[in-house]
C-alpha cells in the first residue's frame, strides 16, 4: 500500500502544481476560462486527498461498531472520487463549453495558454509515469485488464486511469487551441 500512496502523492503534487499554474495564468491573463480550469485541477487535487483518506481509514483496527475492520472505506472513498471526477469535473467542463459557445471570448495571444499546457503535460506526465511504474510493479506478470479487474485496491488503477485521461485531454486541448488560433474560431 505504501507504493500506492507514492502514486497518489505524485498525482496530488502534479494536480496542485497544475492548479497553481492555471490560477496564475488566469489572474495574469484575466481569463475566466483559465480560472475555471484551475478550479477543475483543484477538484482533481481534492480527489487525491480523498483517496489518501480512504487508505488511512481502511487501515483502522476493528472495533465494536466494525468487527471486521474498515477495509471497505477505501472502496467508498474511491467511489466518491469517481463521482467527483465525472460529476463535478465533467460538469464544470460541460458548463464552460456551453458558456464559451454562447459567448466566445475574443482570441488573444495563445502563448500563455501554450505555456500552461506544456507545464500541465510535464506535471501530469510525471505523475502518469509514476502511476505506470507502480501499476507494473503491482500487477507483475498478470495481463493489464485482468490486473484491473482482480485488484483489491482501486487506488492502484484509479490514479493510472485519471492521469492517462488527463494527458490525453491535454493533447486534445492543445490541438483545439491550435485550431482556434489557426482558423480564428473563438468557440
TrEMBL record:
> How does the entry describe its membrane topology?
Multi-pass membrane protein
Cell compartments where the protein resides: Membrane
Q: What are the recorded Gene Ontology BP terms?
A: zinc ion transport
Q: Where are the transmembrane segments?
A: 7-28, 74-95, 115-135, 156-180
Work out whether the entry's keyword set contains Chloroplast: no
Q: Which GO terms of the cellular component aspect does the record hold?
A: membrane
Question: Record's Pfam families?
Answer: Cation_efflux (PF01545)
- InterPro entries to which the protein is assigned, alphabetical: Cation_efflux, Cation_efflux_TM, Cation_efflux_TMD_sf, SLC30A9
The residues covered by the Cation efflux protein transmembrane domain are 11-180
MF terms in GO:
monoatomic cation transmembrane transporter activity
| Record keywords, A-Z | Membrane, Transmembrane, Transmembrane helix, Transport
This chain belongs to the protein called Cation diffusion facilitator family transporter
Instruction: Please report the organism this UniProt entry assigns to the protein.
Output: Mucilaginibacter mali
